[in-house]
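cron nightly-structures :: item 1 of 1
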Amino acid sequence: MIEGPDGAGKSTLARQLGTDGVWHNGTYAGVSPEDLYKIYDAQISNAMVAAAGGKTIAIDRGPLSEYIYGQVLRGHSRLGLEEVEELLARVDRVGGLRVYVHGNRHTLERRCRERGEDLVDGFSRSQTRELYSLYCGDWPCKIDSTSLNIAA
């Protein structure tokens, strides 16, 4: 499961790692909290089945991103912190790897603009700081993509 803000290089990293597939998670607008939990839970289950068959699947954004972006953009997440932690613990229990990809704010903004995205540009400085600070913490694997050759 690869987490990180827009423009960090999550999808590119997944492709460069040679995964057999990348499952992208969007905002799931209009999806109820119960169904959103089920979506993430099913993805973890499906990735376990794929791994048992010798496949490596990257999940591009998971429940932590819903929690963080929901707080910053909507003022609340559709998943509670306990639910997020439960899903992430499940990834850990089955031997999955959680990776946090990040970069400095200017690099992330540039990558988003190059892709024609305006989400990060639409954030106020305080929202951007909040977004990045919420992603910080203890991670089993942390990659700073600022200096890597990752074209978003």
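cron nightly-structures :: done
The beta strands are 2-3, 21-24, 57-60, 99-102, 141-144.
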